[in-house]
Amino acid sequence: MAVQLYCPECNKPFSISASLLGEEMKCPNCGHCFPSQSREDLFEQEARLIEEEGLQQKEPEPEKEPVIEQSGRIDLGPPEPASSSRISEEPQSQTVNEAPASSTHFNPDAPSRYLRLRALSELFLVFAYLQLLLMAMGGALTIYLKLTGYIDSLAVLLMGLVGWSVMGGLFYLALKLAGELTHLFADIGDQQRDQVSLLLDIREKMKK
Prior knowledge:
Blueprint: E1 2-6, E2 13-17, E3 24-26, E4 33-35, H1 39-58, E5 67-68, E6 74-75, H2 84-102, H3 115-148, H4 154-207
Antiparallel strand pairs: 1-2, 3-4, 5-6
Helix pairs in contact: 3-4
């Protein structure tokens, strides 16, 4: 049986008979003489090489360390692809965040929140003008009574006209003042509502 040996001088292989193992050999390539190993030594060497190859295969590969660039950033490799769930969630979050941006609190065309006060103010004004009409009718009635002879004294006539004028004027002023104050309160309430709405819009814009 032929055995392959390597010359320690030129490191080239050559074949010899297995019966010559353990004797001094001469390399046919370079002529270097060297003692050959025995058969037992070769078997032990082959077994040791087989064990080393098996251990190398079982050893886990070392983890790849992150590469630190010169700029100071750590390169951890390409980013992982985004999952389908995250892709589907992003448009929903955008629509939710965009919804409040389109809505504003201040609306100059919004109707008044104090419609009842404004209606009450108009009612007071109507009663005030009716009181003027009643005052004029009372004065006319007093003059008519004087002309028809139901009132003989001029003093009674003057007292009647003054009474109608004073009482009518006082009721007119009271109703007129109540109507104006009610209308003023409604305007103040709407102005405060608009100011609060503007402040809320400004605060939301500053947050964004």
